[in-house]
Design a protein that fits this description.
The chain has 192 residues and is mostly beta strands. The protein has one helix at 184-191; strands spanning 5-9, 13-16, 30-34, 40-43, 54-59, 62-71, 77-88, 91-96, 99-101, 108-114, 120-125, 132-136, 152-161, 170-179. It has a 5-stranded mixed beta sheet with strand order 9-14-13-11-12, with no helix packed on it. Strands 1-7-6-3 form a 4-stranded mixed beta sheet, with no helix packed on it. A hairpin with a 5-residue loop joins strand 6 and strand 7 (77-88). The longest helix has 8 residues, at 184-191. The chain is rod-shaped.
Length: 192
């Protein structure tokens, strides 16, 4: 019998279903894939005559039912089912403006955040009241930044973590330099 397992996969990843057999059944049988809503994992057409065992993971998270039908060595029809728990690899892209003045708008803009809904998103920075913001992809909220901090250099670290550990954690750190905003009185004196 084929064992159940979890798999970290990225979009456009090709998967050879025969690697799921683990030597427990002969190759060359028929494969069937059944997915829940939101999971895009499909059997590809065969390159020539015969049955295909190539599948393509496109996106999504969830448990796919992969069925393998074959004839065993005693000429008996068999059907094995494996449940594959797909975890989408995390993606994180942030646009951070590295030079700002006190009072300027936000420092970071999230341009791409992908993964399963339960993945934990953490943001660490001296620019965030309390220093840390934590949320999930499924219930994402953007951190509130202090827009008037003292002048200086501040790091902003973003991380995305699969709580089950199937997919590796990803992170990135950016540094923002904050300059002191010129005082109105000084600007007026310079204009005279």
């Amino acid at each position: 019998m084929i064992a159940d397992f979890a798999l970290c996969a990225c979009p456009d990843e090709l998967i050879d279903l025969e690697t799921f057999l683990l030597g427990s059944a002969p190759e060359g049988g028929n494969w069937i894939i059944q997915n829940p809503g939101g999971l895009d994992f499909v059997l590809l057409p065969p390159p020539g005559p015969g049955n295909s065992h190539a599948a393509l993971y496109n996106d999504g998270c969830g448990i796919s039912r992969v069925i393998y039908e074959y004839t065993d060595c005693n000429n008996n029809a068999r059907r094995d089912t494996i449940l594959v728990d797909f975890h989408r690899c995390a993606e994180l892209e942030v646009a951070t403006t590295d030079i700002r003045c006190q009072g300027d708008a936000t420092f970071s803009t999230l341009t791409n955040l992908r993964g399963c809904d339960n993945y934990i998103v953490r943001v660490f920075s001296g620019l965030i009241p309390g220093g840390t913001h934590m949320t999930t992809i499924g219930a994402f909220t953007f951190p509130s930044f202090n827009l008037n901090p003292p002048a200086g250099n501040y790091s902003i670290t973003w991380s995305v973590q699969d709580p089950s550990g199937v997919c590796p954690e990803i992170s990135r750190t950016d540094v923002v330099t904050i300059y002191q905003k010129a005082r109105t009185q000084i600007i007026q004196q310079l204009q005279v």
